[in-house]
Amino acid sequence: MSVGSPFSCILWDVDGTLVDASDGILRRLTITLEHFGLPAPTRAELVHWIGPPLYESFQHHAGMTPDGATDAVTFYRALGKADGYTTDVKLYPGVKQIVDDLAAAGIPQGTASSKPENQVQALMLHFDLAEHMTAITGATPDEKTLATKADIVAEALRRMRAAGVDTSRPVLIGDRHHDVDGATANGVPVIFVRWGFSWPHEAEGAQAVVDNADELHALLLVDSDA
Predict the structure, then answer these.
(1) Cβ atoms within 10 Å, residue 91
(2) Distance separating alpha carbons of residues 141 and 124, to the nearest angstrom
(3) Are 19 and 129 a contacting pair, CB within 8 Å?
């Protein structure tokens, strides 16, 4: 049996899609917000924080000024650097097998993440996924120069093309509304995963919605002899 994909390349969101970093994010957010004299979020409120750029979230959800948000991001990132970026992070069940199977089938893959790119690189190396990623794309450290999902997806596609990848039929795997919006701005369809941190309505506009890794696997890899 020959296995292929209906897509010419796969772009992966990271937080909430490939990895669950919620324990570490909650701990660092608590320390950061308390440092700036603000109330810490509850675990239920993490849905507001995980996914979008923190520079925006500190303004929208904590009421900080742009300058204050810049200081908060710097403080938060220093905590993450001290942790080593992979502390309290785990892969979602079944996703590594999908990445491995896509690689075995010769389907190019890359990341398109709102996390700072150095953190994405550290995570991909830690979980032995880096070797399967043609391009590892994330946000710039300040989360302002390259930060919107639309710009990150565009940059990921540019890097994939520069590496010789056929980007005529791409797909983004993500778990938040900004994944859908950012991909759509680039003409990229989205497969929305429900195991991350999202509200039900955030899947609106996605090409497909999946609840588990088996369902995602079935959409990404098919019997090409059939």
Answers:
(1) 17
(2) 17
(3) no
- Selection from 55, 203, 67, 220 nearest residue 140 by Cα: 55
Amino acid in position 42? T
**3 state SS of 9:** strand
Q: What is the mean pLDDT of the chain?
A: 93
pTM over 0.85: yes
Cβ-Cβ contacts under 8 Å for 108 (sequence gap 6 or more): 8, 9, 10, 134, 160, 163, 165, 166
The helix/strand/coil state of 117 is: helix
What is the greatest pairwise CA distance in the chain? 61
Cβ neighbours for 172, distance < 8 A, ≥ 6 positions apart:
11, 12, 13, 112, 153, 179, 182, 183, 188, 189, 190, 191
CA dihedral for 26, 95, 212, 175, sign (positive or negative): positive
The answer to whether 119 and 18 have CB atoms below 8 angstroms apart is no
Q: Which sign, positive or negative, has the C-alpha torsion 154, 156, 159, 163?
A: negative
- The pLDDT tens digits for 96-140 are 999 999 999 999 999 999 988 999 999 999 999 999 999 999 999
The answer to whether 189 and 205 have CB atoms below 8 angstroms apart is no
